[in-house]
Amino acid sequence: MGGVDAASFRLERRVAGFVAREDVLRPGEHLLLMLSGGADSMALLALLPGVDVRLGLGLRLSALHVDYGARGADSDRDREIVTRACEAAGVPLHVVRLRRRLSGSSFQARARALRYARAEQIAVSNGCAVVVTAHNRDDQAETVLYRLAKYASPRGLAGMRPRERPPARPLARPLLCLGAAEIREYCRARGVEYGEDVTNSRPVYARNALRLEVLPALQRLNPRVAETLADTAAMAAAEADVLAAATAAAAARAAWPKAPGDLAAFGIAALAVEPPALRALVLHDAAREALGGQALVERRVVEALLNLCTRRDDAGSAGLGRGLEAVRAGGVLRLRRREPAHVCRAAAIDGAALAATGGEGVALVACGRSFRARLQDGSALERDPARAFIGLPGPPRRVTLRHPRRGERFAPLGLGHETTVARFLAGARAPAPERARAFVLAAGRGAAGLRRAFACVRVVVVRCSSSRRICEGPDR
């Protein structure tokens, strides 16, 4: 055996040792290999049969190639390379050709999402237990650097794991122990055909910039920086497992019964007794799970959740992205899907017309509910908790019954100062979904309230509740 063959033999043995040591592939599994036609993926196809024989795993192989049609003749070339190699290896190949080209600044993210979605569909229909990718050690280094640059989370150092279980099925990466250069040398020595993606030579994407500009600069400080970063990722992954157990225990201690629509709920007091770092991890994991289980959560999202927990007033909300929000009320922090904005027409009447009706008043319909508004002499006013009222020095120009507006303020009777309608409703423990549908009774200018009649000048807030008569209650 010549020198090159000996090197290839040692490389194959390293991969087999890595697969066994890290439990990357398991006996009898049916694998779906994701093959792009590049050096890494074609080396994966060439290496796995030997790994299977060495370890006696009895694996079954199928493959997937996604043709985005974005590189013209090069896309055709890669598809043909994968087709020839799979035919020679006797591996069933599924080719997905897109009808419409992907383009734009988010091309890579959309291409990745589409690729994994198709992989899941084909894995399900063909009984494949594991999806296998050809990520290598240099990819791992790029991942660690990218996460450090974009996300303020030490757990991002864990990078990609040799085997992990995303929301669908396990994802395996048998080549994480190899560098990109030695994979290409293996292909050359073994005569493995592959295609070069010319777009990888231009720093137009974040990963390309890391590979072409950042890593070479770091290699001047440490020629083996990719190995160092990969080793860091392996150690961080082991430590992350310990942190995950502690975080899960803290989350269980702080957990609160979920209301309908909640994705997660935590008691504020229970969270407060946890160490700050552990509290942040609990909220980080809750946000990640709510966002889909594999989302990389930005630090600003965790900071927003932490700020909600430390507010003096038991109120507030924060957007999490992807249509989700966190809402604090009643000593509980809830993560939930943001409901579509409720829109309905306000009910309004001219003040002079209202005064002309005397004690009879005027019927108003707002948000599908019926009310009756009337002007009364303040000296004869009965302070019935079923009625909301506003003290006025004279007939109003206009009376309006509507839902509260964002940031709207009023001065509840007895409070001594103004507050926002949102904080008032939260302090009165109105459920978050009901707050946007509370009613504001405004005379001329101002806002309106909750639960029972709270009088103030120009503004009253009354709760939207079918169980309580408000403003003379439903008109009978």
Q: What would your notes on this structure say?
A:
The protein is α+β, with helices and mostly antiparallel strands. The protein folds into 3 domains: 3-228, Rossmann fold; 255-337, 2-Layer Sandwich (Uridine Diphospho-n-acetylenolpyruvylglucosamine Reductase, domain 3); 347-462, no CATH class. The protein is built from 14 helices and 18 strands. The protein has helices at residues 3-21, 39-55, 73-89, 107-126, 137-150, 180-190, 206-219, 225-254, 268-272, 276-290, 299-310, 351-356, 421-427, 432-435, and strands at residues 30-34, 60-67, 93-97, 130-132, 163-164, 171-172, 262-267, 317-321, 324-329, 332-337, 347-350, 362-366, 369-373, 398-402, 409-410, 419-420, 439-443, 459-462. The strands form 5 sheets. Strands 3-2-1-4-6-5 form a 6-stranded mixed sheet, with helices on both faces. The chain has a 4-stranded antiparallel sheet with strand order 7-10-9-8. Strands 11-14-17-18 form a 4-stranded antiparallel sheet. A hairpin with a 2-residue loop joins β8 and β9 (324-329). Mean pLDDT is 82; it is low at 445-476.
Termini Cα gap = 98 Å
Count of the separate structural domains:
3
Largest sheet: 6 strands, mixed
Strand order of the largest sheet: 3-2-1-4-6-5
Mean pLDDT: 82
The count of helical stretches stands at: 14
Q: Output the CATH homologous superfamily of the largest domain.
A: HUPs
Which class best fits the helix and strand makeup? alpha+beta
Detail the poorly predicted runs. Answer: 445-476
The CATH class assignment of the largest domain is Alpha Beta
The level of helicity is: 40-55%
Radius of gyration: 32 Å
Overall geometry: elongated
What is the CATH topology assignment of the largest domain?
Answer: Rossmann fold
The count of strands amounts to: 18
